[in-house]
Each structure stands twice: as structure tokens, then as C-alpha cells.
Amino acid sequence: MPCLCVALIFCSRMTRATAEGPEDKFVPEFCATIEDVDEYPGGDEYVTPCTCGCTRSWYADAEFLLAWRRGRNVPSLVTTSPAGTPAGNAGVLPGATPLFGGGSVGQDVRSGGRVTVGKWLDACKTNGVEGRFWMLGANDIDFATDSSTYPILARPYFDAVSQTNEAILLAYPGFTGPGNVRISGHSEVLGSDFLYRTLAAETCRMRLDLLAGYQYSRINEDININSMTTAINVPVLDAGTTFTSVESFRTSNDFHGGQIGLSVNYFAGCDWQVDVLAKVAFGNMRQVADIAGQATIVTPPPGSTTNATPGPLAGPANSGRFTRNRFAVAPEVGVKLRRQVSECLDLSFGYSYQYWSDVIQPGDQIDFLLRDPTPAFQFRSGSYWVQSLTFGATVLF
């Protein structure tokens, strides 16, 4: 199999080899000693580099990803306290024990995939176009507990009127119960881009391409909070009155931008190759936050009544649909080690890191002080990242 570095410099280093008779050829000096010389055309034509390697102009790369993404910061949404704690202090922060929240959640590794398809536009492979699509597997949150596990179970909040920390007791012996709470969440991250690449420089062992194109990415996440309790001995309430709360915080981020970058290929012998990618996109991040919530109180029969009020975290002031557009920067870097296993097939292992400068997440849209009544909505954003280990195969066709 001819050395790949020979093929890379044919278009820039060609000399005329003269001889007599019908076997006259114009052969690049680096090809003059390889076995493939007899396959080159004669006459007054120069030899193309593609005859020294895989001559196909299309390529496709399929990769399996093991990816980590930035987690979702959420306040302490569920708490418990030791048995015997007075009802006035049970579940109240900072003395209570958080069962969910108070930090970042949803950072577990997840699988994903990335597909790249490209085409060289000329025989010397100096100009080409490339399209790419990638997607990470869903990163779901599913937390659930009830009063059979924690006899004291609460949802903490801050009373904005009295300026004190309080708690909704979902379960407390002799006061409320049975009670339960479930918190679920979903994270979806995907992207695509289109690139034009052109050769900028090359040597026998290295090739440098300049890149320019378009990038799209989407980051959608949500957090849902459902809780229920029943009154046992609550002042001014009938025993058996139920309280059910359903709240949802959803965010979406859609990025559209132009990108520039460079790609470096280093050829370590004929069969091994190292690829380095560095690019950055500049564009608009469209951000949407959807917040909704409702607390339902149902009194026991006879004369059962139902009363619906806003949720404790999704109140009248912060519920609804909110939209804005922000300028964002989205760089990406990556490195791959390739092994050529046949003339037109490579296997690869690598690492990539992607970053977005301005992203909203659902946990940040929950008032971190857990104030009740809730303050007016305001966007809270931060950076977001995804890093991946990649395992791939590239086919030329």
C-alpha cells in the first residue's frame, strides 16, 4: 500500500521524466520509485495524486460517543428531619437534610452518535464540502420518595412576608400523611453543521485545512415537580383534605451561527494519523422558558369541594412563556488518532469538547431562595458544555 504522505504532495511536486518510445510518462518524483508507476497514464498529462491511494471522492464517518454534559443546578426541593423534630422546625432549611437538590444533577455519562459525510470537489482533494449531525442520548432525572421511607417529608420555602424559612409538610406523624413527591427531568442535546474546507498548507507529514460554514445546535431541558399530601390534624382543615401540586419548568435553546476554524492532519507513517480540529461559531441563541404550576385542594365528602391555586414555585408572577435572543459563542476542539486498516477504511479513537457561552437551564429558572410568593420572572443563564470520548470508522467511497 503506497504511503499516504506521498499522495499528499503530488499536486504540488511534479517533474517530467523523459524516455523514448510509447512508455513516456510524466511522473511525480515521489512516485517514481513506487510499484504503482506503471499504472500512471502517458502522454502529456500530469499524474494525479489519487492513483497512489484510495481514489474515492466521498467519505463518511460514523462515531459512537460516550458523553458528559453540564448538569442542572437546582435548589433544595425536598427535605427530611430526624424523628422527634418539632413540626415548626421539621423540613426547614438550613437545619433539615436535603433529599433532592442543593447542587447539580444530571451529569451522568450517556451514549450518543455522530455522522459526518463529505465530498472532495477536485482530484487533488484541495477543496471539499462536509455535513455533520450529532445527538446525545437523553439524560433523565427520576427521583421519587414517600412517607413510608421518610416519616417526615417536606418541601422547603422562604416566606417572603415574614422573612423566615418554612416548609410544606408532606408527611409528619399525626399532622399530615401519607405524602409523596416525585421529581423528573429530561435533557436533549443535538447539533448539525455544514462546512467548506480548503487546503491552506501541506508537507510530507502534515496537512492544514481552513474551514468555514454554518452551525446549528439545540439544548432542551425540563424539571417537573409533583407532590401530594393528606391532612390528618391540621387546624381549620377537615381531616382527609388532600393537597396536590404539579409544576413544570421547561427551557429550550436554539443556536444558529456562522463558524470558522482549521483542521490539521499529521501523518505518522503510512498507517497512523492524528487529526486536530479547532473551530468557533458566532451567532444567535434563541431562548424560551415555559413555567406552569397548580396546587389543587380537595376537601372530603360530603360536600366535597375543589380549589385550584398557583403552585408554590410556579406562581402568578413567574408563570408563562418567556422568550429572548442572545448573542452567543460556540467553540469546539477535538483530537483523533486514526489507524488505516485497509485502503479506504480507517478506525479512530478521540476526544471532543464543545461549549456554548449563553444557555438557560430549568433549574436556574426556579427561584433559588424558594420565595413564596414567587418574584417576577427573570432570565438566568450561564455557560454549557459537552465533552465526549469518540470511537469511529471512516469509509471512502
List its traits.
2 domains; disordered N terminus; Lipocalin; ten-stranded antiparallel beta barrel; mainly beta
Molecular structure report:
The strands form four sheets. This protein has a ten-stranded antiparallel β-barrel with strand order 1-6-7-11-12-13-14-16-17-19. It has a three-stranded mixed β-sheet with strand order 10-9-18, with no helix packed on it. Strands 2-5 form a two-stranded antiparallel sheet. A hairpin with a 3-residue loop joins strand 13 and strand 14 (272-298). It is built from two helices and 19 strands. The model is unreliable at 1-52 (pLDDT under 50). It is mainly beta. It is elongated. It has helices spanning 4-8, 362-365, and strands spanning 58-69, 72-74, 78-80, 97-100, 103-105, 110-120, 127-136, 141-146, 153-159, 164-171, 180-202, 206-230, 242-268, 272-298, 306-309, 320-342, 345-360, 371-372, 381-396. The chain has two domains: 1-53, no CATH class; 57-396, OMPT-like (Lipocalin). The longest helix is centred in the N-terminal third of the chain and has 5 residues, at 4-8.
If strands are numbered along the chain, what order do they take across the biggest sheet?
A: 1-6-7-11-12-13-14-16-17-19
Structural class of the helices, strands and pairings? Answer: mainly beta
Work out the helix count.
2
Radius of gyration: 31 Å
Secondary-structure element order, as H and E? HEEEEEEEEEEEEEEEEEHEE
What is the 3D shape?
elongated
- Count of folded domains: 2
What is the CATH class of the largest domain? Answer: Mainly Beta
Distance between the first and last residues' Cα: 17 Å
Tell me the CATH architecture of the largest domain: Beta Barrel
Q: Which blocks of ≥5 consecutive residues have pLDDT under 50? A: 1-52
Number of strands: 19
Mean pLDDT: 88
Strand content: over 45%
- CATH homologous superfamily placement of the largest domain: OMPT-like
**What fraction, in percent, of the residue positions are helical?**
under 10%
CATH topology of the largest domain: Lipocalin
Largest sheet: 10 strands, antiparallel, barrel
